[in-house]
Each structure stands twice: as structure tokens, then as C-alpha cells.
Amino acid sequence: MKLIWMTFLGLLFAPVLAAAELGDDGLHKADWMRDTFKDLREDLGDANAEGKRLAVFMEQRGCIYCTKMHEEVFSRAEVSDYIRDNFFVVQLNLHGDTEVIDFDGEVLTEKAAARKWGLLFTPSILFMPEDVPEDKTAQSAAVAMMPGAFGVGTTLDMFTWVNEKRYELDSEEDFQRYHARRIQERQNGSTD
Q: Which residue range or ranges hold the Thioredoxin-like fold domain (predicted)?
């Protein structure tokens, strides 16, 4: 009984950071998000120079699912620390007018980029490879996309799966199988 109570208290008081503040554009601003010129080729070069993976977050003002992710998932130390240590994050606004330069060289507004890439829902996260051919768009080059709000385990597993380049591995463990295995390992108390 004591172990159950201690586990409950541990979960209740797990390290949680303050939720990201809202910027002037109404989007949540986490300290691990980069303020760039939104030239994706340049951002990819900067990410590579830091030994990190580029992730493009598409969010929008008033998005309840974006708020959920920032308040309940990205505010968790294990998630925010992992993102900060391994990813170069560029945030875009689904309805924004800031110019973005896509990997194929096209200059367009954030909202036009969202349409071009077929992103309809927020949050959506595009995970980029370390090298993108000049004829590719962000959407066509992405090694994975996380469409929507998910819990801590799923989010951390997706970021880990991308960071470890498991999409390249010559095995049958796609993300769904990887995630199922990780869930089982967490339930068994093994996270190695």
C-alpha cells in the first residue's frame, strides 16, 4: 500500500514547468522555440550546426489543443528538456502573414505555406530530415508528422523515434509498433 501511495504522490508532483506564455500573435511561446527569419533552408543549416533536428510547429491563436499541449505536455520537464536538447523548433501561425521560405525556394506567407503543405489542423508538427533536396517542400520532405494533440508518452515517443532516426532503420518497427513497445516497457517498469 505504501508503494502505491508513493507512486501516486510521485505522479501528482512530477516535475512540471510553467506553461509557455502567449505571444502578441496569440501563440504559446516556449523557451525552446527559435525566433528565426523563417527561411527553412537556413533553419535546417542552423539545426544541423547545433547537432539538432528541425521541427516545424504549426499552431493558431485560440487553439484549445495547442493550449492542451503547452499546458499538459510541453510543460513537463522530461518533454521540454528532450525537445530543448535535441530539436531546433520553428513555430508558424496557421493564419499568419509572416513570410516563410520553403525548402523549394518559394516565398509565401505562413497561411499560404499551411495550405501548400495541406495542414488543416493545429497543432501539427513536421519533422525534417538533416538534408532536404532543393525540389522538396517541407511537407514532402518531412520524415514524420504529428497531427494533433497527444499525451506525454506519445509525444515523447514521437520525438525520440524521430531523433533516433528509427524511420530509417531496416526493420518492421514503424512508429506505431515502437510506441506500443514503449508503452509496454513503461508498464513493466523498464524504460531502457
A: 48-131
Say how many C-beta atoms besides its own lie within 10 A of residue 2's C-beta. 6
Question: Would the CA dihedral through 183, 47, 146, 91 be positive or negative?
Answer: positive
Map grid coordinates 496557421 to a residue.
94
pLDDT digits (tens, 9 = 90+) for 177-188: 999 999 999 998
Residues of the chain with pLDDT under 50: 1, 3-13
At 43, which amino acid appears? D
CB atoms within 10 A of CB 169: 12
What are the angstrom distances between the C-alpha of 40 and each of 2, 100, 113, 173, 184? 52, 7, 11, 29, 37
Of 131, 147, 133, residue with least CA distance to 56:
147
Which residue ranges form the domains of the chain, and what is each CATH number? 18-150 (3.40.30.10)
